[in-house]
Every structure is written in C-alpha cells, then in structure tokens.
C-alpha cells in the first residue's frame, strides 16, 4: 500500500478530480447510504467529495486494513465484509463504489449479484481503476490457450489509448525455437529459456509466472536484455528457416474491461452507463532544475508511468499539447496527465 501511495502521490489531485466528477455524475439514490467495497486503507475515501464521504460506509474483508482507514479518517464508518456478502438489506443502498477491486474478486458473477441485491433501483455501481490489473487470472487463461505473455519491450506501451503492456507469443513457437537453439549450440536456449521456464512448467504456477513477468517488466535493464534476446531469436529463426516471431498485442486493462462488461451484461438487473478511460491533465511549474522554457512530462495510466524530458508522440489528452503561450516564453513547465478506467452500471429493476 505504501508503494501505491508513492506512485499515486504526484497525480493525486488529478485523480481526485476524476473521482469527484464520476461520482457527481452518477449520484446515489436519495436518503440511502453509499457503500464502498474493498475499501482497503481508504484511498478512495480520501478522493471522495465531502458529501459522499459523509454518507459512505466502507467495507473490506480485512479488519486491519479498516483499522488503518479509521486512523486516517476517525469519523469513517466501516464494516468488515466481502463484496460477496454485504451486511445490508435488499435495496437498502443508494450507490456502491470501488477502487481497484473488481480484478481481485474470486467470483465476479456472485459479486455482481450481491451488489444488485443491496442496491436500490436507480442506484449505480461506480468502479475506478487507476493502477494495473492483477495478472494471475489472465495469465492462467493464456497458459491454457498455449500463449506466453512477455512485457512489451518493442515500443512505448503509452502509444495506445489502453496501455499495450503485454505481447503474446505462442508457446509452441518458443519451445521449438529453444530446441533449435540447443541444436545449433546457441546460448539463446539458456538465456531466453530462463524467462520461459515459469511459463512452460506443468502444472502451471500462476504466482511463479507472474513473479517472473514482473521481475522483467519493472526493471529497465532486464527489459532491454529481453528485447536483445528476442531480436537474437528473430535472427536465429531467419537463418535456420524457422517461422518468424509473430507477437500478439494484449492490453491487461482491456482484459479487465471485458470481464466487467461480461459480468454486468449477464445480469439482467443492470445497464452499463459508462465504460471508458477518463483523463485529466495539468500544466505546472516544473519542480526540477531545468533551463527556462524546458518542457517535462509525466503521466500515469492504468499503472503505466512515463517520465520524460519532452512531450511524447501521444498524450493521454491531445487537447492539452499546446496551452496558451509558447514554451520558450514561460518558465520551465511540466505537463502532468493521469488516466483511469471508469466503469458505471445502473440497477434498473
């Protein structure tokens, strides 16, 4: 949780704006409480507008997490409960909200049914996701499909609306290539095989595979080393007449979107009303030492952070690229952007 707070800190004001606008756009049913699921230590509460905080009851399966929430907000009302068993009567709740919680639910359909049970007709479920989704569930499904996930080392994941953080390679292709490398005495077999080992293991261990993936994805040197290995693999494939590598794009954020869409569309009590990435941007005087007129850039979108000394090819919000006044005429400035996946479903019956 401390690491999450550190990652969010430079973007806290913009994230609070997204939360406030999303909640105010879909107000709770009058006279009924607001329930947060998976409240954790209270990050969403900290971003809520005051009127929402006053009506909120924060639930989480962990009493220790709620204890920390109350340390941060002594006036907060809390209940120990999971999203699958909420301690409220049928139709007694005016809105249900959550931050980065839907991807950790063990049974999405059961949670949707429980949210629908406690919500009053007309009430909304508002879910926000500003960080990367957990990878264990999609990795297990990919393994069953014969696909190996690799961190996207081929380009900037932020060049897409939904960060392209993962590419997929067929396990049979990798297995065949590693066999070929062994046959010709190439060190590629041992080097690339070290990454693939966790994904080839049977039975498949999702925790080990996720740990292996994150160890590379979060380390610049390891990402570069993996890119070098894949380039070597491509050259070896070409020289030996082996089929070329054909990576497939995979957006982990869009995977979560598809899970949520399916869960709520399969429940007749709900209508999806919002299902998109919402962005906020702000130009600020640069806090770092830099020549006058310099432009710096930082952004966070579904856990993917970019910190650059110039504007990237693609912004989260292109309308902010050219603010009033030209860069050389202003003090050193930084463009800060944030993107969060906002999902809203209304209880219709």
Q: What does it look like?
A:
The protein has helices at 2-8, 12-25, 43-47, 50-55, 63-72, 108-118, 136-144, 171-183, 188-200, 206-217, 220-239, 252-265; strands at 34-36, 56-60, 77-80, 93-99, 119-129, 147-151, 166-170, 248-250, 270-285, 295-301, 304-308, 333-347. By secondary structure, the protein is α/β, with parallel strands linked by helices. Helix content is 38%, strand content 25%. It folds into three domains: 2-130 and 252-279 and 341-347, Vaccinia Virus protein VP39 (Rossmann fold, 3-Layer(aba) Sandwich), CATH 3.40.50; 166-250, no CATH class; 281-338, no CATH class. The chain has twelve helices and twelve strands. Helix 8 runs antiparallel to helix 9.
């Amino acid at each position: 949780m401390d690491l999450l707070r550190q990652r969010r800190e430079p973007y806290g004001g913009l994230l609070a704006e997204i939360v406030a606008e999303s909640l105010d756009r879909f107000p709770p049913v009058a006279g009924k409480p607001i329930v947060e699921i998976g409240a954790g230590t209270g990050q969403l509460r900290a971003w809520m507008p005051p009127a929402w905080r006053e009506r909120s009851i924060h639930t989480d399966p962990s009493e220790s997490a709620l204890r920390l929430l109350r340390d941060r907000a002594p006036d907060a009302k809390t209940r120990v409960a999971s999203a699958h068993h909420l301690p409220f009567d049928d139709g007694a709740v005016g809105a249900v909200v959550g931050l980065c919680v839907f991807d950790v639910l063990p049974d999405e359909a059961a949670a949707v049914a429980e949210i629908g049970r406690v919500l009053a007709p007309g009430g909304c479920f508002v879910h926000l996701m500003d960080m990367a989704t957990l990878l264990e569930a999609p990795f297990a499904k990919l393994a069953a499909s014969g696909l190996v996930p690799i961190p996207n080392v081929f380009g900037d994941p932020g060049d897409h609306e939904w960060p392209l953080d993962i590419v997929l390679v067929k396990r049979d292709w990798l297995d065949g290539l590693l066999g070929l490398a062994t046959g010709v005495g190439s060190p590629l077999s041992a080097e690339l095989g070290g990454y693939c080992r966790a994904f080839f293991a049977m039975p498949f261990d999702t925790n080990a595979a996720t740990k292996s993936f994150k160890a590379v994805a979060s380390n610049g040197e390891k990402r570069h080393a993996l890119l070098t290995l894949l380039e070597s693999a491509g050259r070896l494939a070409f020289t030996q007449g082996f089929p070329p590598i054909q990576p497939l794009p995979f957006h982990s954020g869009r995977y979560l979107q598809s899970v949520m869409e399916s869960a709520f569309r399969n429940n007749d009590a709900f209508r999806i009303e919002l299902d998109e990435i919402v962005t906020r941007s702000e130009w600020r005087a640069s806090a770092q030492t830099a020549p006058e007129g310099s432009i710096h850039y930082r952004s966070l979108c579904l856990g993917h952070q970019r910190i650059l000394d110039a504007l990237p090819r693609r912004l989260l919000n292109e309308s902010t690229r050219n603010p009033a006044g030209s860069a050389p005429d202003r003090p050193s400035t930084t463009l800060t952007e944030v993107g969060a996946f906002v999902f809203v479903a209304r209880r219709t019956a």
